[in-house]
Specification:
Organism: Billgrantia ethanolica
Number of strands: 0
Number of domains: 1
Largest sheet: none
Shape: globular
InterPro entries: Formate_DH_dsu
Helix content: over 70%
Strand content: under 5%
Oligomer: single chain
Number of helices: 4
Pfam family, one: FdsD
Order of helices and strands: HHHH
Protein name: Formate dehydrogenase subunit delta
């Protein structure tokens, strides 16, 4: 994956988070649900990898949602093993 593609994913995740921030306590879950439903598996894997390696460009809300996504992927992977 190129840095340009990663920058696009970071930007998109931060935009989704910003657009859902007004939901307060439910915001991170809404962002997580959006990513899970609408992002391709490869996009989800790339943004989770970025979070685990650095994640510094993610907003706090995007980071929280992507941490939940990583947890969900880990649970799914463990259940299918």
């Amino acid at each position: 994956m190129s840095r340009s593609q990663l920058d696009t994913l970071i930007h998109m995740a931060n935009q989704i988070a910003a657009n859902n921030a007004h939901y307060g306590d439910d915001a991170a879950e809404r962002v997580y649900t959006h990513l899970k439903k609408f992002w391709a598996r490869s996009m989800k894997r790339q943004i989770v990898d970025y979070l685990q390696q650095d994640g510094s460009e993610l907003s706090p809300l995007a980071r929280q949602a992507i941490e939940r996504l990583a947890q969900s992927q880990s649970e799914t992977h463990s259940a299918s093993a």
